[in-house]
Each structure stands twice: as structure tokens, then as C-alpha cells.
Amino acid sequence: MGKTTTSASIATGLAKRGHKTVVIDFDVGLRNLDLIMNCERRVVYDFVNVINGEATLNQALIKDKHTDKLHILPASQTRDKEALTREGVEKVLNELSESFEYIVCDSPAGIEHGALMALYYADEAIVVTNPEVSSVRDSDRILGILQSKSRRAEMGMDPVREHLLLTRYNPERVIKGEMLSVQDVEEILAVPLLGVIPESQAVLTASNQGIPVIHDDLSDAGQAYQDAVARLLGEEREHRFLDVQKKGFFSRVFGGKA
Amino acid sequence: MPQATADLFASPCLQFKGSMVPLTTLELLYFDPEKFSQTLQEKIQQAPNLFKNLPLVLSLDKFADDINNLNLLQIRELCAAQELQLVGIRATEPAQIAAAQAAGLAVLQPSRGRQEAPEDDSQSSLQKASEPQTANPQSGAEATEEVEDPPPGNGVAANRVIRTPIRSGQQVYAPGGDLIIMAPVSAGAEILADGNIHVYGPLRGRALAGVRGNTEAMVFCQSLEAELVSIAGQYKISEDLLGNHWKKPSLLKLEDDRLVIREL
Ligand SMILES: Nc1ncnc2c1ncn2[C@@H]1O[C@H](COP(=O)(O)OP(=O)(O)O)[C@@H](O)[C@H]1O
Ligand SMILES: [Mg+2]
């Protein structure tokens, strides 16, 4: 999928552009975010500890090593998922919103408790989709839940603002008919497109190094995430990396993959 | 004792109220347990959401088989096994009524003068008749009067207009009127109306118009890509809808009790 990869890069991007940002891992039990952010060895307290009053937010928040205005609130590796209560989550979000401009919630997969908690208080939602029929169908479901079960829906407030982020996009496979095209996905979901992130080796390299791929200015995926962050902040940017890239001299000679 | 509680206990503990509930009717021609289960299961698979925990009335108006072959207790169990709840039967024959009473099922009056055209094998019948049945405790002649929905106060039909997409897993129903959707209806979504359904966008999910038996109901859509379309119980699934009208602006209605598709 790419939700955690996207949360890490979007949060980093917002912070790099000067906005005080915190990214929260809602995937209790898995803890992928702190691996991608390379802070797993600095975790002392986690999200559930804060909810249970066993630690203060300041004790649990981890300051990112690479980006000044970025903090991480890690998930608990051991607790059970029910520890995330609606009241507990609300209390933590309220406290965070006093000192942060953006709170990025990395949702677990599916439509179970953790995902519902991650989306309940959302003002905006970035729905991450892969160009496959089953993934698009799941996103459609999540969009339905956002518009019916979120706090904004339940309170009759303005709806959650929706963004579509298509990731692991591979134009070659689209041409071969093995993947849905950007147009197909937009047509089915009818949600404004925030960005298209190409399938890229740079993402794997970045996550192995624990540096969100958006830091990699030279990579296609890094640039695509930078564009997405700019659009999120209201800038107009043309979508890139939608077509098959012509092979450069070196890759032609050495037959490598870009 | 608090005043509210005292008031409560001063009033009678129950009262009778007339009400109308839509009940789906299962019309039985003859009874063979195996065929019964199998046919039921096939029908349910085509619209599982529609059938879940549905209260059912068994109609014996057309029952032509030997009454001794009719086992109402078994029928109730076979229905229950598919999460359908048999609540009563519709019959006039004294033997049938006696059988129903022995099985603890309610006996409702048969429908009057409602014609059912012979089934065409290119389509199937989901609910032969899903008309409102009165469930009135004051039994007697007037109790079984079939009443139309009371018109809403201002004389305007209870139409429902929705401007946001209907997503997979969502269900929207317009009781007593038309359903108008000015957005796409996703695959995996279900929209229902007692009246007509209009979709100003692609219809990719299931659309059921005239769900309480209105055979005049129609379905209009800007692009026909539906999983299922049903009007008053007559339905077609997507493989029957594929063809000239697929992905085109279309109108679906009943003609001689058959579901037909027309260009819009
Ligand atoms: N654009 C991409 N190109 C290549 N691999 C990707 C891309 N985005 C994500 N991945 C890989 O897919 C896997 C799942 O990503 P992750 O962000 O953890 O997904 P999720 O949080 O939705 O489960 C990871 O191995 C990640 O490196
Ligand atoms: Mg994840």
C-alpha cells in the first residue's frame, strides 16, 4: 500500500516547509513508522502510555533527527488495540493541537478499530490507493466511512476534506493493462488528486536507511511527495511521473532500473 | 418515587396500535424441501443485503400441490437457516389456515385482484409482491384493508436528494418517495426507494426502485454500470445488463411485468 511511507514523507515535507508537525502511529502492535523514521531505538513511552496517563506527551514525543519542526508519537508494540479509546485519542489530539500546526495520523490497514480511531477526528484525509481494483474498492469504502462515521459527519459539520494519493504507480504496467491508470482511479473515486507517487527503488532504499524518501531530492518518488505537500499547502503543481520515462544513456547502456 | 415514574405506573402498561409494515411475500407453488432451500439460497446470493433478517410472509394463493406435502415448520426452519424470518402465511383454505395455526404462524388475508404475469426466464423474480401488509391487532374486516402510505403533510412526496457519492458498503433508502442522487453510486453500494431512482452520475452499485411493490417505478441513470437493478422485485444483474445500454444514459422500467432497458 504505502500509508506509512506517505505519512512519514508528508509529515516531513510539512515540517521542512516550516510548519510544526507531529506524526502519530495508530498501528498498535506493528510500529512501522518509527522504523521508517529511524527512531525505534529512542522510544521510551508511546501513544497508549499517554492515553493511560502513564506518561506525559512531552515524555513520549520524539524529536526527529533530520527535520527541525517534526515530532513523532510512536505506537505501542505490545498493547492491545482497544487501548485506543475515543476519549483518550481526543484528549491527546486536543493537547497536541495546542502546539502543533499539523497532526498527521498514520492509519493501520482495514476498517477495524485502529483505522476508525485514526480517521474519527480528521479534518482532512489523504486516501492512499494503489492502482489495483481491490485497493480502489477499499479506498471507496474508507471514503464512505469518512463521510458517515467521522466526528464531522456525526456532528453534521462540514465534511472531511478528501484527497487522493495514488502510489506505487507504474506507467509501463498501466500500458500493458496490468494496472489501472490515473484516469481510471480518478473516475471511480471522484476525489481530487493530491499526487501520484511512482513505484520506485528510492522508497525501499530510503526506508532501509530510515530517512523518509521526501528528503531524496533527486529521486522521482521524493519529488512526487514534495509536489504533493506543495499541493496540500494550496500550491498548483502539474502532475509528473505519469508516463513511461525514456531511458537515459546510462540505464540503456547498463540496463539498470532507474 | 420520582414523579415521572409515578406517572408512568399510573398509566396502562400496554396499548394496541394499528401500523403498517412492508412485508416481503414468498409465493409457493409446491413444496420440495431441497428445491426450496436451493432456490432460496440462489435468490439471496444475488442481493444478500436486501434479504438479511428479512421478515417474510408465505403466500399460498397459488399453492397447487397436495396440502399434506406442506410442512410449515420445516419451511420456517429452512428460512431461518438463511437468516430469513417467516412470520406468517397468506391463505384462505381452511386446511392451510389450520396448519399455520398449528405452527404458531400468523394468518394474513390473501392479496386481492393483484395479477402476476407468468415469469419470463430471462429474468427472475426477487420479491413477487412486496406490498404493504397491515398488521392490525383489531382483527375484522377493516383491519386487513390495504392502505396506501399516508401522504406527507404538505402533499409533496417524501423525495430524498443526495449530492455526495454513495460509496461501497453504504446503503441509502428513500421511503415513500423518489431517491435522487447527484453523484456517482459506487460498486458495492446499495440504493433503494419506494418510488423512482435517479442517478446523475454513473450507477455502479445496486439500485432497487419500487421496493414496496410499485410497478410504475423507474430507474434513471447517466451511465448504466450497475451490479443489479430491480423494480418492484423484478431484477437484472450486471451480466443481464451488459450490452447496448452499458455505460450509456438509460431508463429501466417494467413493461408487462418484465424489466426492460431504454435509451435515455
Ligand atoms: N512508491 C513506492 N515504490 C516502491 N515501494 C513502495 C512505494 N511505497 C511503498 N512501498 C513499499 O511498500 C511496502 C508497504 O509500504 P507502507 O508504507 O509500510 O504501507 P502501509 O503502511 O500502507 O502498510 C513497503 O515495503 C514500502 O517500502
Ligand atoms: Mg502502515
Could you characterize what this model shows?
The complex is a heterodimer of chains A (258) and B (264). With 258 residues, chain A is of the alpha/beta class. Chain A has helices at residues 3-16, 33-36, 47-51, 57-60, 86-99, 113-120, 133-149, 151-154, 171-175, 182-189, 201-209, 220-232, 249-254; strands at 21-25, 62-63, 70-73, 102-106, 124-129, 161-169, 193-198. The two termini of chain A are 21 Å apart. Chain B has 2 domains: 24-127, 2-Layer Sandwich (Alpha-Beta Plaits); 141-263, Pectate Lyase C-like (3 Solenoid), CATH 2.160.20.70. Chain B has a 6-stranded mixed β-sheet with strand order 6-16-15-13-11-9. In chain B, strands 8-10-12-14-17-18 form a 6-stranded mixed β-sheet, with no helix packed on it. The longest helix of chain B is centred in the first third of the chain and has 14 residues, at 33-46. Chain B is globular. Chain A binds chain B through residues 137, 140-141, 143-145, 147-148, 159, 188, 190, and chain B through 164-170, 183-184, 186-189, 201, 204. Bound molecules: adenosine-5'-diphosphate and magnesium ion. Adenosine-5'-diphosphate (ADP) binds at residues 1-5, 32, 109, 167-168, 197, 199-200, 203-204, 207, 221 of chain A.
Bound molecules: adenosine-5'-diphosphate, magnesium ion
In total, the number of strands of chain A is 7
Roughly how many Å is the radius of gyration of chain A?
A: 18 Å
> Which two chains form the greatest contact, residue counts included?
A-B, 11 and 15 residues
Q: Residue ranges of chain B: pLDDT <50 for 5 or more in a row? A: 112-152
What summary fits the major beta sheet of chain B? 6 strands, mixed
